[in-house]
Amino acid sequence: MDEETEFIGYQICSSNIAGTRKSIRPFRNDLFIRSVNIFNDRYGSFEEIINRLKNEEREFTQDEYHLVDSVVYTIQQAMGIGLDLMVQSNSARKHVGNRFEELIRTLLSNLEISIKKVVLSIPYETDEGNKYYRCETDVIISPFESVKSDATSINQNEIVVSLKTTTKDRMPKIFIDKVLMERFVGHPVRVVGISQNDIQRKEDTGEIKISSTFVSNLFMVYTRFLAQLEGYYYLDLPSKALERPFNQHIFTFSKFLLKDVWKMLNP
């Protein structure tokens, strides 16, 4: 990188490529692994943790929790940085979102958790007859050998997982879809959210800084008055999530992977 600066724990980098200035997404210093050798070593430890999970081990140290967040964050963020440098920004955002969904689905599949993308087909009446609204789920996870939810129902033992790289402009949909699904299927639907982070670059009087895109008051209003999720999980946890009452609803991704998902699937 030609230029680097640090701001509140994040590294902000840019480079000139073929006469065009390219800025990459900010990455968090205590999560992103910049050394290939260190990453390879920690990825080996990460694989050991995955194998222990498959052997039904559920006790892990705080260092192991951090290692899981760091390795998964580095994989996702490195893909995003590569796309920032190689493709146009709008295209990069779309690709990054798709790769994030694929990464989380792959992790769940490797843990031998049954998963499936389900699209609910919700009918509504019009002057031209019945039409259908497609309510797409990012992924449904199941305690069964195969997912039982389908286009007309959500099994009560299964969990809808919403995968968003960020909640910016997307938070309302997560809560509204939960309400919509419950009204349609006629019973409670368990929903969790997983995001990479809620930060973005901003320019302030010529200086590049970092700002949060997590709308904390909206999250709590939706949680209290609209619907309560089973939990929301981040690879890069917003600082607000460490405070009450947010810390009762928002957690690190490693907590989901190492602990909570197993409790959800085996209540």
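^ that was protein a. below is b, sequence first then the tokens
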Amino acid sequence: MSNFVVALTGASGSLYGLRLIEELLKSAHVTILISKAAELVLREENQLDLVSAEDKQQFLRQYFKSESLDYYAEDDLLAPICSGSRPIKAMVVIPCSMATLASIAGGISANLIERTADVTLKENRKLIVVPRETPFNQIHLRNMLKLSKAGALIAPAMPAFYNKPKTIDDMVNFVVGKVLDLLEIKHELYKRWRS
């Protein structure tokens, strides 16, 4: 069974990360990383209160109705995924805050999310970053270019409208579907162009 790492950071759009985890759990093991800022966003946007959960891994297993996931705290720099010897298929940072994007682009490994992204790049594994910010300033754009040159795929959370979305779920599914396409995972989350 493939192992994917999904990291949620403190940008708006936590629903993208939650939906991606749901889809990946259908066929893979998922290691979940959630920044402290993302915990606040999850509580605000999704009424998902990880802040007060005593056992966050158990809480997430109940929430996703799956035992096929692990959770590590942001400050757990002894987690197995800190090492390149721990094989993962890919890592997705969704949503990716500009602070996290800048840290990864700068090679900073101050927390588990940044360290795992750094390991993913150094091991030449797939790193997908889903920035959720608008507008981008020149610093954001330079950091995205720097990450792209280092081998990361940049997939901004930009839903399409050719598929005639009718709900927020339709727009979320499009973005998550694009990430699944990059991961080469079959899905039917959105209607493809001219199909």
